[in-house]
Amino acid sequence: MRDNNEMPGHLARRFQQIAVAVFLAEVEEAGFDLTPVQYAALSAISTNPGVEQVTLAGLIAYDRTTITGVVDRLVQKGFLLRHPSSRDRRARELKITEAGKRTLRAITPAVEAAQRTMLRGLTAKEGTELMRLLRKAIAAGNDLSRAPLRNAELR
Amino acid sequence: MRDNNEMPGHLARRFQQIAVAVFLAEVEEAGFDLTPVQYAALSAISTNPGVEQVTLAGLIAYDRTTITGVVDRLVQKGFLLRHPSSRDRRARELKITEAGKRTLRAITPAVEAAQRTMLRGLTAKEGTELMRLLRKAIAAGNDLSRAPLRNAELR
DNA sequence: TACTGATAATCAGCATGCTGATCAATATCA
DNA sequence: TGATATTGATCAGCATGCTGATTATCAGTA
Fold this sequence. Notes:
The structure is a homodimer.
Chain A: H1 8-29, H2 36-47, E1 51-52, H3 53-60, H4 64-76, E2 80-84, E3 92-96, H5 98-117, H6 124-141
Antiparallel strand pairs in A: 1-3, 2-3
Helix pairs in contact in A: 1-5, 2-3, 2-4, 3-4
The structure holds a DNA duplex.
């Protein structure tokens, strides 16, 4: 059998494992309690106020069933408001609160630091190249997962 | 805020998400029901018969508390045996069964196919380079997660 | 308008993956 | 030896992330 280090799937799992650990450590160090997934959701809602849950899911490539719990917890923390949409009574519109905005601003340096830390073994050029290759592989595989990335305008 | 596509953490999550989806699809297509994590454990135990759980965890960089459930399910499926160690009564020695060996052999082509599929957007050279960069980044960040990779001999 | 199909959100159920705790057994050292 | 620390496995609790189902609503069409 091939060595683990020759298996892209294993390497993907390890890199993601480290990325999450680094993110949580940096964020906790900064005095916050927010997961990578919660951060991505909060950030996307801040950029797209009033977005519906299903659109949000597409924006950051979450499964639609996962988003319910993530939004629940962000609402619980007082960072989000979830209203029924007036346009479509099935949908829920998401808006960031003032507390959410403050947290998002305050946490940004820690998030940036985490992104640097998870690439700390690479030169700047290698880091750029890794991101390019990941983007390319992801683009080709986008529709292979149940939660593909979707452009908001295309919906 | 930085675009998601410039965040290594986001790219790591997406790539891992696609890798798991591809793995499960290929394996199911081949008529098997095994997760990436279960496959890695089974494979490692096959190569290291009689390994203890904590050593196994280090070999494939699992958290020690995760391994209990994974091994439970593999025992349930009849692919593993878990005996108390005679050397150390706290420890459990893991051995692969004949059924486990057969499944491991039979599933290998699907696993290999999955590794190719998750890199299908890249040239061969790019795929190799992506794996090199991931290995390098992982090596530098190994100790940042609670479940670092550990060499069996070094324990 | 009534029917049909699609869609948004949610849910139950299951598998990772973590934190922090507990328990039993082992190792270390005064 | 005896006290202390460490270690292997497990557990409770929580958050992702998926499959497949359900419910309410909407959209298109006969």
